[in-house]
User: Fold these one by one.
Assistant:
Number 1:
Amino acid sequence: MKNELLTNKFNSTIMIVIILSFLIISAYWPVHEYNFLSYDDSLYVTDNYIMKKNMASEGIRSAFTHFRTGHWHPLTMISHMLDWKLFGDKAGGHHWTNVIIHILNTILLFLLLNKLTGAIWRCAFVAALFAIHPLNVESVAWISERKNVLSTFFLFATVNCYVWYINKKTWKRYLPVCLCFALGLMSKPMLVTLPFVLLLLDYWPLNRLQINDNQNIKKFITINGKIILNLFAEKAPLFILSIISSYLTVYASKYVSDIVRIDSFPIQDRLMNAVFSYFLYIKKMFLPTDLAILYPISNIPLWQFSFALVFLVIITLFVCRNFKRYPYLFVGWFWYLGTLVPVIGLIQVGSQAMADRYAYVPLIGIFIMLTWGFADIVYRRISGKVIFLIGLIFLCYLILWTAFQIQYWRDTSSLFQQALRVTEKNLLAHLVLGDELLNKNKIDEAIYHYDKSLTLDPGSVRGMVRLGRALNMKGEQGKAVYNLRKAVELDSKYADAHYNLGFVLLQKGDIDEAVVEYTKAISLLGEESDSIKSSLYNNLGIALTRKGEVTEAINAYRKALFINPNHAGAHNNLAMLLMNQGNSKEAVKHFRDAIMLENNFANAHYHLAQILLKEGKEGEANYHYRKAIKINPSFKIIKVK
């Protein structure tokens, strides 16, 4: 009989795992056709120079030592590097890695809860909510959020190792707990609160606190103080890892100036935003109708803040008063409150008031409260079949909204248009959408969004720079220079303003000023080597060439190629100068490199043909001449004698 029960339980577990996997695959199937976003995906992957480095040597070292993303998460960067080696610029592979990790997270969550509680169908429902909730779409469908799904994988791995450790407490069993936690922190520092989560699990369902039914919270703490202290002491190594990770996080954010100053967002406003965000995440859990990639910081009406505060206080008092009767409510609620602390906005990083991705782990606490609470309270009044039907309807409701939400992630334009529809005064959404339109040469539409951003914030340096770039593309160079100079005046340390100003001045023929602006932009980028700096050196080389400073121009092109050996334009420009100096051998090498990187590079084909003809390689010269003319008919072929 016992063996039969074990077999049935095993079969049920396998069936649930298969269903959960199928739910995720069917829901997220469209993402394999989606491309990279221009928002953050370029920072993490497509324009991140370390993707092109050798993983076995310089690449891994760069992942541990560079802070260009504003975070220290080397394991996440290594996973992106691995994806780049496997899939290159084919975004579908990168997307599916996120989906696969999300599947593993869902299975681990189900198996973990089932191991801890034995309530297999409740655990399955919690895992199903986690698997297909629309609030989690951002974490799964956004390649840049690899850090979120990857760190969660190690969170569950840490908890599993912890459960294994407490069954037989030895240092050999404790080491995997520390290792998994360290790997999680190296994926995303949001896991710093995990030691407190383990303390909650010590209470329920692990029951390591030995609660007596006659004790209230005050008596419980007094009587069991020694047990509580021992449990804290047991997690001392984990707390130390959290402190180290917190320090590195603050350092990385300061490195890219991503932490918002107190005077620009006062502490009382941060507190109001934090309280209201706690409420909004729960609201969006039940009504995920207005999800956006970015929620701008805004003034919160006093009545909304007061309502949210009362709501949170009532729930907190209820779960504390009933911590013995409904331990899962206590654990679930403080799981939610606690795991959101690092990203709730008290230390403001970036310009968002909240973000769907931040709810990926915290909402598990609410899912537990909802599932166990509903089952315990309603089961006495309603049959199990009715409860199952209600749960199924709620899951179908969420799947429907998830399907809608996933569609917005097909490209940058649809995603930020959705953000503008459901939010107000979204300055960053206007800027990103303007950039997308400008890349598609829809200049007037881009200018509309840049003007909108400046209406929302007349002092927005980023808005001025982007407007200047769009005006230059429209041919209004005078207005472009005006906006770019104004941006430089407002923020003389903004490299992009100097870069774009130098570009427009070079087009106008103000070469000396262009050289000054390019040089200033390069100095502001510091030691960080990326595609932007490579382009800057290339443009500086062009300006120096026009100025007649050939030696300095050659040095600038060499620096561009040292940073980014795949810069076809820099190869061509350097080859032209070397050819004019009579260094044909090296010029040929760089022309060939330019063609290899960009086969339709007409100028490289044409001038390579000229050198080859002089060297007597008539057949190859004819090939490159014909290739150049096919690409650009303005080139004239030189007949081979």
Note: The radius of gyration is 29 Å.
Number 2:
Amino acid sequence: MTEPALSIADRRNHARIRMTAAIVVAIAIVALLATLTLAGGGYTPAAEGLPDPGAVVTWGLPIVRFATDIAAALTVGWLVSAAFLAPSSRDGVVSHSGRGDLLRAVSAAAAWAFLSIVQLFFTLALVLGIPLSQALSPGIAGTFAMEIPQTRSLAIVAIVVTVVAIGAALTSTTGITAFWLVIAVGACVIPALSGHGSGLGDHALAISAGVTHIIAAVLWLGPLIAIVTHGILARAGKSSFNVASAARKFGVLALICVLLLAASGLANAYTRLDNATQLWTTGYGQVVLLKVLLLVVLVLVAAVIRKRLIPRLPDGKSSGNRSVFIRWLSVEIGLITLSFALGVTLALSAYPRVETRLPTIGETLLGFLYPPAPTWDALAFGFRLEPVFFVGALVAGGLYLAGVIRLLRRGDHWPWGRTIAWIIGLVIVIWTTNGGIATYAQVSVGWHMVQHMTMTMLAPILLVLGAPATLALRALHPAKGPERGPREWLMWFLHTPLMRLLTNPIFVLAIYVLGLYGLYFTGLFGWLMGSHVGHIAMEVHFLASGYLFAWIIIGIDPRPRPLAYWARFAILLVALALHALFAVVIMMGNTPLGIEWFGMVRPPWVPDPLADTRFGGGVAWGLGEIPTLFLLVALVIQWSRADDREARRIDRQADRDDNAELRAYNEYLAGLNSRPSQND
């Protein structure tokens, strides 16, 4: 069915959209260049004899980066709209409007990939101090583009985003759309991870805050633009997109984004300023204050929209209310776009904080002074903030308790043992990543093994016994409409091919073996320890691999292919043997582990790296066996209870049918006995 030709009013609306977008972008670019000058990031001719990329590169890079960020936000926004905001069926097939959003995401992703390449050449020119024309030459680009972390990350982004564009073009389900959304959000943060190879000072907090800020920003701006676009272009009765429903769904996401932006913004300011007075005495600080002011205004605008306007849109088709609603959303988009411009300014400007020089190279690599010789008090009660795991554990604990409270208020029962196991597991995660053991794990292989074994083999057992997926399935309400709700999304995820792979025992054992032998007996261990991002990735692997292993052995939560108890017992024995062999090899080895890192960050109380490594092997041997014993005991208890349940089931069946199965079996035996033998 062909769409009717646009009326004069519709054409005027389209023209207003384009005009408004152009004005917002123009204002944002002007603000970008003005604040860049204020913060000291503008162009200043270099002294004679020094490299000078020129004004085109210095002023052009912020504009290209701003355009790249907007394209990234648009890609994320259209994918969010297609997967979650546009109406769809419970089987996950995208609607007509969702398919249109996917095609818009393809266009935005193509622009994102192209602008990333353009930004690569501008960045290359700025870093090398050469004009853009020279950076575009194949010789320069081929030699340096993949050697500089910032340009290498942009090349990776272009490749990843191109894959997202192709995948979105071929996608027809909301589940796969959500997958491409995750990949796109991941691509947004890749540039923020470059250039931070060490953990100097508060760079760990700065990286975590920066990544959080980027994710929150794109998840706020992108879906807002999608809602406004649908709201302006939708005609009453001629579009399946419900603006009011989409706005209500987005309201929850927007609230989370506001909180994340505020917290990450404070953390970023803390890591880049020496004191509060620099907020008004430096250009950088003044831009920070301006961005804070914008965030406050955004919060007020969002409050007006969500409290006064959304409730007046019961069906999303009231043109009058929708018109006011869209105008307010347009104001919000304009303010967020300005905030994006200020974010680019802060990212490209030198910040006032001066790094404190530390006494040794090793301490400089660590970003803090060597800890004193380990004591039980220092190991147990020391603290150094790692925001990723600290905040993540607090959120996981809060959501779990909220689910328990909802069940109790509903009159349902939830075992307190599961709640206690979940909370203790999270406490262990916080201790292993933020406690004193986390500090000592960065300078000693032995104490690193204590952290690793606790994080991989003890915390996951308790977390798995907490049964978070089962709690969520019981606490979440089923969706009332034809679309998927949170509970349906969780059910879909638990039965995806990805989950079938992650819970496959062969895959889990492979991850387990690679995590031990592939990590520690190669140069990967020292390389990952040398960067904050690598360190986080390694700890995520420890926790995830341990959780998957405990899940297939004693897991309560539903999974695609439950294993027989004898198979679980066999897998546990295989893992125990592999772990014991790993520990023995370390204790008998003659080469220190991770010498590429631990050889450079060796405090005075670690005089012999080989002895420290062998101490780590002893820890792996002794400490690794205790959690395995816990797993074995839990498995035996579950096996016994399963047999008891099966016996009770058989007894109930016998009571219902008067032992029909047993009588049939006895008759079968009697029939065999009555047959004449061959000797008769």
Note: Residues 361-657 form one domain.
Number 3:
Amino acid sequence: MRNIFCLFVSATAVLSALQQTAQAQRVDPEDLEFEVGVATIPNRATYDKLSYKGFDIGRDPYLANLQYVKFIIENTGTDQAKFYFMNTKNYRAHPPYMRMVGVSNRGVVRGALTFLPHLETPSGGAGLYVFDFQPNDSYTFEQIKIIRDTLLAKMPLLKGNVAFHPLPGNMARYRSEKKEYDASDVAVYLDDQLYAKIAFLPLNAAESYGLLRVMDNETRPSPRDIVICKTLPNQMPRVAGVISAVRQTPLSHVNLRAVQDKVPNAYVRGALERKEISSFVGKLVHYKVTPRGYTIRAATKAEVDKHFASLRPAQPQTPVRDLSAKKIRPLAEIKFENSTSFGVKTANLATLGQFGFPTGLVPAGHGVPFYFYDEFMKHNGFYKVVDALLGSPQFKNADRDSQQQQLADLRSQIEQGTMPEWMTEALTRVQKVFPAGASIRCRSSTNNEDLPGFSGAGLYDSFTHRPAEGDLSKSIKQVFASLWNYRAYEEREFYRIDHRRTAMGVLLQLNTKGERANGVAVTDDVLYDTVGNYYINTQAGEDLVTNPGASSSPEEVLLGWWERDGHEIVRRSTQIEDDEQLLSDAHLAEMRKYLARIHGRFLKLYGKGEDDPFAMEVEFKVTKDGKLLIKQARPWVF
């Protein structure tokens, strides 16, 4: 019985093999229906329609989440050559496709053409196409050159924009023939160049209209300007869009502001040398940034006016201001839901301290509620001053310089105001809780920042109160006054937020000095769009990630969610030796554990599902004794 069964299985296997090797009737490339494939790709739109990007990649894991089109070349280098671009959106495996169109396996080249939008092209632009083959295939230099030339003939837009990508099976032969590649016009892309030759980064994908201007130290841009930054400014006012000629990170104040304002922002290497940009300087333009590139075209004033009219909310917005909490509280007594009384910055840090982390990871502190700000303003009659200012034609109709000066005068009045006796006593009591002679960091914490969909990054100011300055009220009043910074006023005005209902709380913490490094981590890769990684920026010493010096760049790390995935240093800091790391392997292992817990716990607190776009932005530092310290956590604005 067993022998009969074995014979049956063998016969079935042979029949199946015969069926699989049987070819369909031959279909030439020129006769293909588009749903199956094409013989040529005349433009980018055709490539997009044929391409696939996702995770259904079968035995090609290196293509995961990349945009690619597979191809087949029959009789390569002969007069009988046939070139098939597969409709990869519909067909992702070579063998069944070949059977379907009647192509045999003998002498056939099977490859993929992948688009890498961030990378520099051989011609110096951005948006590199790379071609490769089956992982174990190996071709000579002469064969690669013939295939490259065939690709150029079938897809002209590849000229100056394509490179050969050797996979493991071709690496040994490539190394042995490297001199021939170096002496030719055949460009080569190696995997270790993924982050080294970046010519374009879409920091914030969006579109806008405005006047294209070059921004320098003397430029005062308006909300209707699209600015080209030759260096990154310390603070970015509201603008309509940003093009930077120096590489940014998604955690710089420039980009956090762009994300918050929903305006396009991109790094473009050599931006001012590119005709498609420089030819529009001083003109009204439409500027669009997508994950795969940017476009700039001329725009009319009518288009610009219509765009800005559509951006502002139709109705006024009133931030939630709960004045029921009337006492300064230690962070251990403040809950996540108390953000409407103390501000999101204070409430989120307090919540972090309740996640069961090791002692000292999240610093202790105290929260000054909105009630103190409200009582201070009423005690000095400052609400009446605010009403008179905002309602004055001399303010409403003034230019930006005049408005800035009038708000500066208001801040000066607030800083000179007096506090009720009970408030001074409360601040004196909490000041005595801190070690004698210690400096206290007074951090702004309002009811219109650090919110899902609105970060408010860089709008308000924090101050360090030093022992020689005496009573803590001096620095508290400075924080209160920062509610009336011009950049904060301008942002609230644009979003029609009720200025009177905005309130300032203060987060009090022991000020630390001499840290080895400080950084920001996001619990998703918000820049390179890889899957399964945390994105981390770290700067040496006290040079801030969000506001770095002109000549410094941070250490960029992609940290795998799982220990088995390890980490990759995308870019090393310019402030240390080339082979050093700001975050040690031990620090990264700690960060992996902490970030996972922060993401999961806040995901639930914010009522998000696993499939919702959600990430937390976490500020941290490495103290002078090498310990990690978490300073802040807020939702990343998608």
Note: Residues 517 and 540 are 4 Å apart (CA to CA).
